[in-house]
Design goal:
The complex is a heterodimer of chains A (57) and B (417).
Chain A lengths: L1 H11 L5 H29 L11
Chain B lengths: L4 H12 L6 H21 L22 E2 L20 E8 L4 E4 L4 E5 H8 L2 E2 L2 E9 L5 H13 L4 E6 L17 H8 L6 H7 L2 H12 L1 H4 L1 H15 L7 H5 L6 H7 L3 H8 L9 H12 L6 H16 L3 E5 L10 H20 L5 E4 L11 E2 L5 E3 L1 H18 L15
Parallel strand pairs in B: 1-6, 2-6, 2-7, 7-8, 8-9
Antiparallel strand pairs in B: 3-4, 5-6, 10-11
Helix pairs in contact in B: 3-16, 4-5, 4-14, 5-7, 13-15
Classes of the chains: A mainly alpha (57), B alpha/beta (417).
Chain lengths: 57, 417
């Protein structure tokens, strides 16, 4: 009985379907990492570089 | 066959499994952005800042008792405060250019007033005195408060605040060191009294980057990355910066080029809404700024100074806020004298609102009761020895008032080098 229930449970378990999902997951990783690099580059490029010129006050 | 945009979208969806098309997919992308930011900071850490080479630390030895924790004015990390050494008596001394003794064309010497006071009080309670000197060149009221918030958070044994009489209540400029907003946010947000100031002066990017930079060094260290990138690009680029001599031959800029040449917004206002003709001497401009500082009515700078005194009072750390002296010869002019009187009176009112045993506010400008001070201009001393004597005495008398068991006695001036 127990082994039958286990096999039914295994049959009902949703399939991971990793083969079809893998391209999406990989694309998400690449998009995320590229966005992170672009964020850092944008912040580095826009950080202030104004030279301080003291006017006496 | 691709005929329109829909075909392209369908192709991309087939190839990349509709990445980003569903909310959960967007969440996963955001998580990967976070992971990427973390990895960049971990795998390519920024070059650490050499604090021994920053502007006011250059030339000092590693064990010097005077340390300026401020970073470059553009650096969004603001400061780098060392952990407090319990074997030392730590003083956090915050102020603007008026904390220096400067040379004029004919007289004076260069030194820092906190360093000269430290020479008079090398030990307090048997411990060697160490001074974290936040010297904000061109600092305004909010810059001073941001640095004071860092000083309070570092839990020193004493906080000294030098209030510049040109700017303490002056709304012509309330900030010059905008990069300090981010690092101060974490200290300030805990006290609801600061929230109106934060709402008024902190931009959304200040807040977002301060929060992000708390755990992500790739965001926090962006100024160091920019320096590294700049060095690398400078070697690659065939274009070289022109020499100072060739720039000097250029005609003075006008119009938009002139506006572009100003490093701060104050330059714009002083040119287009001048208090005195813009070609007036520095001393004349300073006098006009002091008279503007004394203008009655509500002022944001007054709110900032008041909130700062409140924060010092609440900190329970022994604290002294004093008005920096001005050239007494300028007070011969009745308008200047009256202006200084109004500044002193307003500061006293604020001090009365924040009375606390740990906080001493000296609202009277020191040239009123000290003689022998000499000045390069209205606010910068060329002989500050009487002021150093006074401040050394003030440090010890206040510490003794807060805790009568404190051992603190200034050395006489003659015995100091």
């Amino acid at each position: 009985m127990q082994s039958q229930a286990e096999s039914e449970h295994a049959m009902n378990r949703p399939k991971l379907n990793l083969e079809n999902r893998l391209p999406r997951y990989l694309a998400e990783v690449v998009i995320g990492l590229v966005l992170a690099l672009l964020v850092v580059l944008a912040l580095v490029a826009t950080v202030g570089s104004v030279p301080f010129i003291y006017a006496g006050f | 066959m691709i005929r329109n945009v829909k075909d392209v979208t369908a192709l991309l969806d087939r190839r990349f499994g509709s990445a980003g098309a569903r909310p959960l997919s967007l969440v996963r992308i955001l998580v990967w952005v976070g992971v990427g930011l973390y990895l960049i900071g971990s795998l390519a850490p920024a070059r650490p800042v050499d604090m021994s080479k920053t502007h006011y630390n250059a030339g000092r030895t590693a064990n010097s008792p005077i340390f300026d924790p401020l970073l470059n004015q553009n650096d969004p990390r603001g400061w780098m405060v060392h952990k407090k050494d319990p074997s030392k008596f730590t003083i956090a001394w915050v102020g603007t250019s008026t904390m220096q003794n400067v040379r004029s064309a004919t007289a004076g010497y260069y030194s820092f007033i906190p360093a000269d006071v430290r020479a008079r009080i090398p030990k307090i309670d048997g411990k060697s005195v160490h001074i974290n000197m936040y010297l904000l060149e061109g600092g305004r009221s909010m810059d001073v408060y941001n640095a004071v918030s860092s000083a309070i958070a570092s839990k020193p044994d004493l906080i000294m605040v030098d209030l510049n009489p040109l700017w303490v209540f002056n709304d012509r400029a309330v900030q010059e060191w905008d990069a300090l907003n981010g690092p101060a946010l974490g200290h300030m947000v805990e006290d609801p009294a600061n929230w109106p100031l934060l709402a008024a002066l902190d931009s959304p990017s200040d807040v977002a980057l301060a929060l992000g930079g708390t755990h992500l060094s790739s965001l926090r260290d962006r100024w160091s990355y920019a320096q590294q990138l700049h060095d690398a690009m400078a070697n690659l680029s065939p274009l070289k910066l022109p020499s100072a001599a060739s720039l000097a031959k250029q005609p003075p800029p006008t119009g938009l080029a002139l506006i572009n040449a100003w490093s701060t917004s104050l330059g714009f206002w002083n040119y287009y809404r001048p208090l005195v003709p813009s070609n007036a001497s520095v001393g004349t401009q300073q006098e006009a700024l002091m008279r503007e500082d004394a203008a009655p009515g509500p002022a944001m700078s007054a709110d900032i100074t008041s909130t700062m005194l409140g924060a010092l009072a609440k900190s329970k750390i022994p604290s002294v806020a004093y008005l920096s002296p001005v050239d007494p010869s300028a007070l011969v002019n009745p308008a200047n004298d009256a202006a200084m009187g109004r500044i002193e009176s307003r500061l006293k009112q604020l001090a009365d609102q924040h009375r606390s045993p740990n906080l001493l506010v000296q609202p009277q400008s020191a040239e009123r009761f000290l003689s022998g001070l000499t000045f390069k201009d209205l606010a910068h001393m060329t002989n500050s020895k009487p002021m150093v004597d006074y401040l050394a005495g003030l440090v010890c008398s206040h510490l003794t008032a807060v805790n009568p068991a404190t051992e603190c006695s200034p050395k006489p001036r003659a015995s100091t080098p």
